[in-house]
Amino acid sequence: MPRLSVTLVLLTSTVLAGCAATPDAGTAQAPLGVTWPGRTPELFAPGVVNTDGIEINLVFNKAYTELFFARRIDGVFAIYTSRLAPDGWTTPEKLDLFPDNPAARAVDMALSPDEQALYFLGILPGKTEGDDTETDIWVSDRTPAGWSAARLVPAPVSTAHGESYPTLTADGSLWFVSDRPESRSPRDLYRARPSTGGGFEAPVSIEPPINTDWSKGDTVVAPDESYMVITTGRPGGYGSGDLYIAFRTEDGAWTEPKNMGPRFNGPEVDFCPMISPDGRWFSFSRRYGKSWDTTTEAEIYWVDASVLDELRPD
Fold this sequence. Notes:
Elements: E1 42-43, E2 54-60, E3 66-73, E4 76-85, E5 88-89, E6 93-94, E7 105-111, E8 117-123, E9 136-143, E10 146-147, E11 151-152, E12 163-168, E13 174-178, E14 188-192, E15 204-205, E16 219-221, E17 227-232, E18 242-247, E19 258-259, E20 269-275, E21 281-288, E22 297-304
Antiparallel strand pairs: 1-22, 2-3, 3-4, 4-5, 4-6, 7-8, 8-9, 9-10, 9-11, 12-13, 13-14, 14-15, 16-17, 17-18, 18-19, 20-21, 21-22
């Protein structure tokens, strides 16, 4: 598979006001026609990450020298990684997270703030992607030899119910979606703060208007927790799965989730929202098919996250 040449610009680590600000990427043009994205979503790394198959998710490290995404082959999702070499992104390599279970699925990853742990949704053989009770959050540790075999994130995160789509914020909190009995909807968003003794405290369901009667799918929270993007199928949307955004208010509450409009949503399924560690880039995936049984293609888009400021309530 070819490599993609990308002109990188050093980014400051200062978090700017609002959702994000575009680094001075100039107008540098890579040989395959890829530059830093503007304010219109663009395909990420066509020919290297995006192919004619099924690719979703996009996670960067802080230095933009390492990325992770998920690719589905023969009905099985696996996590792939690529590193930035002098001549571009290297050919993606599959992470062997379940060495004893080659048919296990791994998808929807999140890198810990210290970049030493990779959390993800894991589904073992015999369990299906559509059965929430059979989905769990797993974690792999970075070692000198590479990423370790996955281990289940223990209680109080893991339960007999379904947990999915982990995301971590700057303070180490783990956010995820679950169908626990106390949920207000079929699937609620939960937050588990880091415990001083290691691991996580008991997860807490997020108050309305985030958790209401409407079920939530993939949900990502900005590193500074200033906003979140939710996948849901509320009536009146553009497709069977749309992206909605909610902002944190000055008193710590959340605004009513707002449909992100036709720039991000269409008749397809728009889902898998993700945000870069510095908050500068927003990415999402688009699936062509209402179910995985009928899906033959899925793509990853990314965009300058400053465009999300346009969606803030007046």
